[in-house]
Amino acid sequence: MASSRGLTLLSILLPLAFAAAPAAAEPVRIVALGDSLSAGYGLNAASEAFPVKLEAALKAKGHEVTVLNAGVSGDTASGGLARLDWSVGADADAVILELGANDALRGVDPARTKTALDSILARLGERGVPVLLAGMYAPPNMGDDYKARFDAIYPDLAEKHGAILYPFFLDGVVADAKLNLPDGIHPTAEGVDVIVERILPAAEKLVEAARSRS
């Protein structure tokens, strides 16, 4: 009789225990919308690209995430705007926006670059998607006026749209021959490691922002 009551009690408690257990959190889906710098141009394997390494770094910090590579080599801010809807699907929880380097290299009017990035941020904001805005600096040979106008784009837009700002995507890597491919522009696998290490705190803030909206 006692064993029968014990089994009955166990049959009641076990379902309650499972019901009380928290469900595993769904991975946060982050889309890295960028150009060749984040896409992994010139690297030996896709696993060496920024999105893959950032995903691994975030997971090592205990974050359940998926970082999707939506980088297109040669893309500009206007190009990113044109492909926004199909590059950043409805299932995206957050976006890392890394565009503008090609604009600066080609001397695109900073006003045009700013307008395109502004539109991307506005449209993502309408969808409630938090953004980490990875900034870029214009090369010095573009002239002081151009550089001043271009470099101001990212802090201005981050403030306007409430985006998380990482001021310079290539921080710690630019002009270091050991961390760049022979073209002096694109990071090596080791360069990507430096980028990931430095941007990681901002990426963790992005994950927190995405979690808070769900």
UniProtKB/TrEMBL annotation:
One Pfam match, given by its short name, reads Lipase_GDSL_2
PROSITE patterns from the entry? LIPASE_GDSL_SER (PS01098)
Q: Name one GO molecular function term.
A: arylesterase activity
Domain SGNH hydrolase-type esterase stretches: 32-192
* Keyword Nucleus belongs to the record: no
- Write down the species: Methylobrevis pamukkalensis
The answer to whether the entry has keyword Cell cycle is no
Indicate what this protein is called per its UniProt record.
Answer: Arylesterase
Which EC number(s) does the record attach to this protein? 3.1.1.2
Q: Where is the signal peptide?
A: 1-25
**Biological process, per Gene Ontology:** lipid metabolic process
| Keywords from the UniProt entry | Hydrolase, Signal
EC class name: hydrolase
* Classification via InterPro entries: Ester_Hydrolysis_Enzymes, Lipase_GDSL_AS, SGNH_hydro, SGNH_hydro_sf
